[in-house]
Amino acid sequence: MPADHLFRNSIRIVIALIAFGLFRIDLVVGEDSQRPNFIIIFTDDLGYGDLGCYGHPTIRTPNLDRMAGQGMRFTQFYSAASVCTPSRAALLTGRLPIRSGMCSDSRRVLFPDSAEGLPQEEVTLAEALKAQGYATACIGKWHLGHHPEYLPTRHGFDTYFGIPYSNDMRPCPLMRNEEVLEEPAEQATLTARYTEEAIGFIKAHRDEPFFLYFPHTFPHVPLFASDRFKGTSKRGLYGDVVEELDWSVGQVLEALEECDLGDRTLVVFTSDNGPWLTQSERGGSAGLLREGKGSTWEGGMREPAIAWWPGQIGAGLVSGSLATTMDLYTTCIRLAGGEVPSDRVVDGVDISSVLLGDGTATPREHHFFYRGSTLQAARMGPWKAHLITRPGYGGTVQKHDPPALYNLEVDPSEKYEIGEEHPEVLAAIAGLIEQHREELTAPPSRLERRVGAGE
Ligand code: MG
Predict the structure, then answer these.
(1) What is the distance in A from the centroid of ligand 1 to the CA of 274?
(2) Which residues surround ligand 1, an ion (CB under 5 A)?
(3) pLDDT under 50: residue ranges of the chain
(4) Nearest-10 Cα torsion for 84, 87, 91, 94
């Protein structure tokens, strides 16, 4: 009967729709469970030699040591600048700071009287991951513009909790999203409060892919540790502060394990720039590396870096592959199933072959060392050529023609200049620099204009 036939057909359609619906749901869940979460923990002014697993004799970092034991520890991992603002711009855009205008020779970072910040045209890692359906949060120090239009909430982060610039700039407020919560921020409680926020975010988003950008305020001076850590380290207040950061990392890893997210979450721990050596005991250590914060010697830009992703990254691996913070941008976007912007130069390369392999792959072969908008050195393979050298702060500028050449695999402390023996290497690096300069377009600096200074 036609009515019966119609009824049967309707049932079939309903069943097909339900089945398709379920299939769709399954597909979406399937996609989500395969897309990893990302957590980038970014300390401020921590040196290459400041962690137990990087050889510090008295600072205790059991949680970071465990993270390295279960994951991959890098020995040649770089930031893209030796001071805060440009370093953060590079991490979040995958681009050298010169490309976004987030660097300057005269004002090296943003200040409370700065008028600008990270330009809206930049595609931040948070924006790229949001486009892939990720929940995003920034917890900690921003330092890419404190006026509303430059805050994390305008750059792809769903939520923000932290300080908008360095903790030595006054008055330094604590903000939630675009509101000031506290001014000045009560600094001794910051690490603990950030950690609580981070754990809350992880737990709230355990069922969807998320990106947590976690740039700590410390160990940038002035140093503050909570009562629980103050006076407990043999390394003095600096050690107390680093040991509290280590505790925080342990809390984050434990929260992931509790939520059963360990095998679905890539956690990277690194630092924005080297130790602030002119702060004497209040500053950290670059270990065997030369100089520190502010400098394009290795101590200014080579960072401790640990990547953790149980089941995906092999346990206890040490990688000597060249890698940078900018590579995290490209790598995370690719792992999330996205594409890096194709309408601009992106300097980050995909280092998943390093992370997911045995740590010996070499997707990156060179790195450029800028101070402000001036190229001071370039690395190619094991070789680094300095065009200009100077201490991080003060001192005299020394120009080198021909450039001063070092083999970093043999001489990580940059003690022995060997350019005369290797003219062919100097010629190859000159070619690399020429090519870099030819393709470079540098917009005006965003760091120089001050509020009230006019156009
Ligand atoms: Mg810094």
Answers:
(1) 7
(2) 44-45, 84, 272-273
(3) 1, 17, 20-30, 455
(4) 150
Would you kindly state where each structural domain of the chain is located, as residue ranges?
3-364, 368-446
d(CA 103, ligand 1 centre) in Å:
14
Same CATH topology for 3-364 and 368-446: the answer is no
* Fold exhibited by the domain 3-364: Alkaline Phosphatase, subunit A (3.40.720)
CATH 3.60.21.10 fits 368-446, yes or no: no
pLDDT digits (tens, 9 = 90+) for 85-104: 999 999 999 999 999 999 99
Instruction: Please give the positions annotated as active site.
Output: 84, 143
The CA 294 to ligand 1 mean position distance, Å, reads 9
39-56 as b/e, with b when 16 or more CB fall inside 10 Å? bbbbbbbbbbbbbbbbeb
How far away, in angstroms, is 229 Cα from ligand 1 center? Answer: 22
Q: Model pTM?
A: 0.92
Pairing assessment for the beta strands 210-215 and 37-43 based on DSSP bridges = parallel
Which pLDDT tens digit goes with each residue over 20-49? 444 444 444 445 557 999 999 999 999 999
